[in-house]
């Protein structure tokens, strides 16, 4: 690329700053000057800026069943766009404390020993991946959070189907998962009423599929029958006792 010296640059300015018969600066001269100046400068082409497309811990979270003991070696997965533009290595922190400052940006995984923490319901821990291109820093976070008790569907049994003193959290819990999800009936002996507790604010169940058949009409819905973590739950109780040897561990698909 040809470089201008001061004499040549001043000459360009002198050629541009002149007037025509109307006393106006000629626009074409200004245009020529600017283009020549841009062409002569040793400008660095705009480079690709690195960014984080993915960051997570393999097989952990982001929501976990509390209490959850996070400990030992964990595999962190990440994808860096334009990794070649990263200056140096990346840093991974746990709650602001460095786990490593030597994470290679062109890799996609790294195994690190985390600081042991028991995550209680409603609590969380934040992991941060960060780096720089030498000018602009970039970062992303991954939060592992303990589910609260009102984020579950509960299924259990009851001897008489009467809800006085009934506590759904003594049953088997399944994390709420959209408008339709499969849960598993518990194991019981003899004849018991099957009981499904579903958070009322999520809506009314339209089907309870057992053995491929919609058994919703075989259940009575008790609206806002119990409270879990300040959330009302509807409780669906089978109208008749069910033989445990037949229905234990049966898949139950509920949909609203």
Flag low-confidence runs.
none
Radius of gyration: 33 Å
Global structural class: mainly beta
Q: What is the total domain count?
A: 3
Q: Got a strand count?
A: 20
- In quaternary terms, these chains amount to single chain
Rough shape?
Answer: elongated
Write down the overall mean pLDDT.
Answer: 88
- Rounded to the nearest angstrom, the distance between the terminal CA atoms is 69 Å
Describe the protein's architecture and organization.
- This protein has 256 residues and is mainly beta.
- The protein folds into three domains: 6-40, no CATH class; 51-146, Sandwich (Immunoglobulin-like), CATH 2.60.40; 150-255, no CATH class.
- Helix content is 11%, strand content 45%.
- The protein is built from three helices and 20 strands.
- The protein has helices at residues 6-16, 27-40, 244-247, and strands spanning 51-57, 63-64, 68-70, 73-81, 90-94, 97-103, 109-113, 117-119, 124-132, 137-146, 152-158, 172-175, 180-184, 191-199, 207-210, 213-214, 219-228, 231-238, 242-243, 251-255.
- The strands form five sheets. Strands 11, 12, 14, 17, 18 and 19 form a six-stranded antiparallel sheet that branches. It has a five-stranded mixed sheet with strand order 2-10-9-5-6, with no helix packed on it.
- The termini are far apart.
What is this structure, in a nutshell?
The chain is mainly beta.
Layout: helices, strands, pairs:
Elements: H1 6-16, H2 27-40, E1 51-57, E2 63-64, E3 68-70, E4 73-81, E5 90-94, E6 97-103, E7 109-113, E8 117-119, E9 124-132, E10 137-146, E11 152-158, E12 172-175, E13 180-184, E14 191-199, E15 207-210, E16 213-214, E17 219-228, E18 231-238, E19 242-243, H3 244-247, E20 251-255
Parallel strand pairs: 2-10
Antiparallel strand pairs: 1-4, 3-8, 4-7, 5-6, 5-9, 9-10, 11-12, 11-14, 13-20, 14-18, 14-19, 15-16, 15-20, 17-18
Helix pairs in contact: 1-2
């Amino acid at each position: 690329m040809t470089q201008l010296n001061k004499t040549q640059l001043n000459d360009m300015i002198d050629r541009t700053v002149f007037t025509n018969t109307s006393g106006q600066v000629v626009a074409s001269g200004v245009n020529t000057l600017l283009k020549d100046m841009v062409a002569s400068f040793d400008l660095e082409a705009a480079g690709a800026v690195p960014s984080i497309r993915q960051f997570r811990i393999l097989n952990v979270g982001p929501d976990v069943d509390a209490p959850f003991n996070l400990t030992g070696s964990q595999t962190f997965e990440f994808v860096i766009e334009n990794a070649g533009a990263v200056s140096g290595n990346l840093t991974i922190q746990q709650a602001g404390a460095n786990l490593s400052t030597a994470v290679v940006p062109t890799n996609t995984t790294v195994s690190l020993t985390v600081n042991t923490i028991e995550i209680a319901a409603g609590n969380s821990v934040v992991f941060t991946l960060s780096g720089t291109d030498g000018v602009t820093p970039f970062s992303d976070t991954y939060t592992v959070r303990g589910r609260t008790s009102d984020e579950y569907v509960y299924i259990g049994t009851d001897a008489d189907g009467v809800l006085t003193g009934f506590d759904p959290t003594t049953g088997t819990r399944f994390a709420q998962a959209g408008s339709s999800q499969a849960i598993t009936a518990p194991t019981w002996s003899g004849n018991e009423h099957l009981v499904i507790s579903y958070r009322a604010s999520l809506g009314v169940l339209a089907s309870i599929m057992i053995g491929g058949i919609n058994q919703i009409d075989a259940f009575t819905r008790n609206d806002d029958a119990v409270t879990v973590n300040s959330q009302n739950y509807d409780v669906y109780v089978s109208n008749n006792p069910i033989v445990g040897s037949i229905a234990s561990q049966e898949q139950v698909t509920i949909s609203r």
